[in-house]
Amino acid sequence: MTLLILFSACSVKEDRGGCPVTVRFAEGVNPYGCDSYAGLLLTDRDGRVSREDGIPVSGLSGNGFKMRAAKGNASISVIAGASTARTGDDEVTYADGVQPDPVFALSEAFFTNAGDEEYVVTSPLCRQVAPVHMTISNPDGSPNTFDMIVKGEWNGFDRHTLAPLRGPHSFRIVSEDGGMSYDYLLPRQGDASLVLALSQNGIHLCDYPLGAGIAASGYDWNAGHLEKLDIEVNYWRNEFSVKVRDWTDVCIVEIGF
């Protein structure tokens, strides 16, 4: 449901100090090419909330889209790409058991003076999940028969600060090419607790400390826009190793078959 806050118009002859300010987005609001629909939440100085849903991201910038807010302190939050995620007034959370959506977000707090007519939002819309491309190789050429589940302790983010939210989140990753290549999304993490759980024929084998490997690679979970992660998995007999990005100190995990 869309809730609109309506403000009375002001004529040019009136004292415009109490008139609302027009809020619009700069041309560079979408530097990373988000191709989705957005939900907007604008909160004014008195805590009044205006919402707009189903807005094409391509139509946000320039004069393509505008909102109105009371002058003074205000904030705006934009969430794009959320389909299965729950989007509340204060947070976005991912459903457990489901891979997170390709969510982009921005948040900007601002202040307008009595004489201001317009405020332009300049914060960029940034990706809040890390795209992972994971490949598996086996020197003896046997097919991959592992079942893999990603398990973490972070399941969303705060709409106003974009900081990760603590909460259990896991999902099974599935290959689309017979088990040697996987593409999935990871929520923004707040620590190195992420693990990759491996099982075979219904028997749990091990929990690989994927979060520790990502941290050792120098990946920045605090970046405004989360970059792509490349992960290489190699298994041979009873050894399982992972290489994250260009990190070469590969960890070996013993697996009992």
Shape assignment: elongated
Number of E-state strands: 19
Q: What's the gyration radius in Å?
A: 23 Å
Q: State the assembly state of the protein chains.
A: single chain
Q: Which percent band covers the strand fraction?
A: over 45%
Mean pLDDT across residues: 87
Helical segment count: 1
Low-pLDDT runs: 1-9
Helical proportion?
A: under 10%
Q: What is the rounded distance between the termini?
A: 54 Å
| SSE string | EEEEEEEEEEEEEEEEHEEE
Judged by helices, strands and strand pairing, the structural class is mainly beta
Biggest beta-sheet profile:
6 strands, antiparallel
Structural commentary:
The protein is mainly β and 257 residues long. It has 1 helix and 19 strands. The strands form 4 sheets. Strands 6, 7, 12, 13, 15 and 16 form a 6-stranded antiparallel β-sheet that branches. Strands 3-2-5-8-10 form a 5-stranded antiparallel β-sheet, with no helix packed on it. Strands 14-11-17-18-19 form a 5-stranded mixed β-sheet. A hairpin with a 5-residue loop joins strand 2 and strand 3. The longest helix has 7 residues. It is elongated and about 75 Å long. The N terminus is likely disordered.
